[in-house]
Amino acid sequence: MSRTVRVIWDDALTSYNFGPSHPLAPIRVELTMALARELGVLDKVEPAGCVPATDDELAMVHDRGYIEAVRRCSATGAPDLSAGLGTADNPSFAGVHEASALIAGASLAAARAVWEGTAEHAVNVAGGLHHAMASTASGFCVYNDPALAIAWLLRQGAGRVAYVDVDVHHGDGVQALFYDDPRVLTISLHESPRTLFPGTGFPEETGAGGTAVNVALPAGTGDSGWLRAFHAVVPPLLREFAPEILVTQHGCDSHALDPLANLMLSVDGQRAAYAALHRLAHETAGGRWIVTGGGGYELVQVVPRAWTHLIAEVAGHPLDPATPTSEGWRRLVRERTGETPPLTMTDGRTPEFRDLSGGYDPGDPIDRAIMATRNAVFPLHGLDPIP
Questions:
Q1: The CATH number of the domain where 281 resides is what?
Q2: Helix, strand, or coil here: 253?
Q3: First-to-last CA distance in the chain?
Q4: Which residues are 245's β-sheet partners?
Q5: In terms of residue numbers, what domain contains 376?
Q6: Where residue 55 falls among pLDDT bands split at 50, 70, 90?
Q7: Where are the alpha helices (DSSP H) in 117-200?
Q8: Which residues contact 383 (CB under 8 A, 6 or more apart)?
Q9: CA–CA separation, 385 vs 360, rounded Å?
Q10: Distance of alpha carbon 17 from alpha carbon 24, whole angstroms
């Protein structure tokens, strides 16, 4: 399905490091790239490096005073609570600006490759820092690289960009930055803000004429319910919006083992979502697809397998779920973490779901969440909310 696929990587991307006790540990992307390399996934793509985003580039979405504050923190490691740095979620550290700007630059490199046509798809698994706001760090995120990629595309002349966020947390920063911009459709599927950070992402948040779309799923939602919700909302809206380019954020913290959230997906269910988004990129956006990572805090069992599947799917060479992890990678896991590595690329699930063609059940909390979103936004796009 895919033609040229570019994976943006530099070992320095692991310098985005809030310290040894912080959940967002850079080992997760290190182990992802190692597993993808061991399984031959990286042989199917074009590797490419990146450079840090400049201050002028960052200023497409961030206030210049905020960028200056991050630079000051970066020089000394001292906190600046007015900028959101120095909190438990976002500790300040020496070099924070440089590390954050490099991740932003990696997503810009992905956007440039796809927009200019040197790649059909491009991936930055270190990116997806979707909580950062215009003037403050938030939720482990300093610079909002998906928003920066979108802003850059708009400056190049893109008239319609769609953003789909499957992280367990609401993509609040990206939504906020484009809330009143009809050129950008943001769709976020996440655990209900009633039970999870950041407390936003209700269906009633609809943006400019329905261009902010939020599917707030109840805690405990697993593969079948999540996929039912995805297919009830995302494909119809993307088909109607007809984006010129699709940007997706793939936080894998929706997994049942993730320590920070309460959804119950498997790696197999997440893999099904990646495949669905790949098909939609070709169907609705002419194949132009920019992909980022995101959250994910089960560092050994989940993130490396999920994102290796993601890269393989983007490359057009999806892995058989029964594929064993390599012995070399297992050894690396034991050496670097002391944990027991997973033996295969599957959780042993076969994700299945019922679509809405058979109707919906008002007594089912997942169906209620689906219909709340469809009722809020489908009429604004000329779509019938009733299946």
A1: 3.40.800.20
A2: coil
A3: 30
A4: 161
A5: 5-51+100-381
A6: very high
A7: 145-156, 172-177
A8: 236, 237, 240, 374
A9: 11
A10: 8
In a domain, 65, yes or no: no
User: What is the domain count for the chain?
Assistant: 1
Angle in degrees, CA 159, 163, 169, rounded to 5? 155
CA–CA separation, 197 and 5 (whole Å): 33
Provide the residue count of the chain. Answer: 387
Cα dihedral across residues 44, 129, 58, 54: positive or negative: negative
Block residue for tokens 């490759």: 113
Query: SS3 for 185?
Result: strand
Task: Tell me whether residue 288 is exposed, middle or buried, using C-beta atoms within 10 angstroms of its C-beta: 0 to 12, 13 to 18, 19 or more.
Answer: buried
Half-sphere exposure of 332 (CA within 13 A, CB side): 17
Q: Average pLDDT for residues 105-115, to the nearest whole number? A: 98
SS3 236: helix
Assess if residue 387 is contained within a domain: no
pTM above 0.90, yes or no: yes
User: For residue 69, which amino acid is it?
Assistant: A
372: helix, coil or strand? helix
Give the type of residue at 195. T
What pLDDT score does 82 carry?
98
CA-to-CA distance for 278 and 130, rounded, in angstroms?
20
Please indicate, yes or no, if residue 278 is contained in any of the structural domains. Answer: yes
Which residues are the active-site residues?
A: 131
266: in domain:
yes
Instruction: Indicate the residue type of 186.
Output: T
Distance, CA of 360 to CA of 339 (rounded, Å): 43
Residue that is written with structure tokens 């997440």 in the block: 270
Alpha-carbon gap, residue 143 to 61, rounded angstroms: 9
Q: Residue type at 46?
A: E
Nearest to 253 by CA among 321, 334, 178, 171: 171
For residues 234-248, give the mean pLDDT: 98
- Hey, what are 147's tokens? 């928003």
d(CA 373, CA 358): 18
Cα 80 to chain centroid distance, Å, stands at: 27
Tokens of 181: 């911009």
